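Known limitations

Files may contain more than one protein. Parsers should not assume a single record per file. Below, a two-record file is shown to illustrate correct handling: read the sequence, read the token line, then continue until end of file.
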Amino acid sequence: MTQNVAPNVYERLRLSESQVQVLAQAVRVLAEGLEEIPSKDTKTAEQAARGARLAHGFLLSQVL
């Protein structure tokens, strides 16, 4: 009986790990959008909005 359960558990763990990696990448993109970059002359709100759009697009492309 455990032979039937184990593959399902391992598949669920693999899927969870993959989803955590995708979320971590999206958070990284969002954080980069919120950072102030001294060398660029952009407004913070525009930069944050761009980061949010990139993170959202990334999540959509990964089909969580």
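...continuing to the second record:
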Amino acid sequence: MASGVVQDDPLDDAVSALAGMGRDVHRHRRLMLHAVGRFSNPALVAPGAIGATEEESLVGAWATGGPDGERWALAVRTEPAATLS
């Protein structure tokens, strides 16, 4: 049965949740999210995107913002999955 082999993906769930909050977020490969917008402080947005991936122990988020996309920040979480609860 195909439904038995499909598993939830924390990054896909995070993209959906962030979109529901009005964020323009897409995925790069398996472990990276990219948030794009006109926000003035991407250093607050990148960790927020990581926070939306509650179950993933290794994940990165890149946020580009500012009037012309000239501001950016990169955040990475590398905690063992056992410490996430």
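Parsers that stop after the first record will miss the second one. For reference, the second record is described as follows. The longest strand covers residues 58-65.
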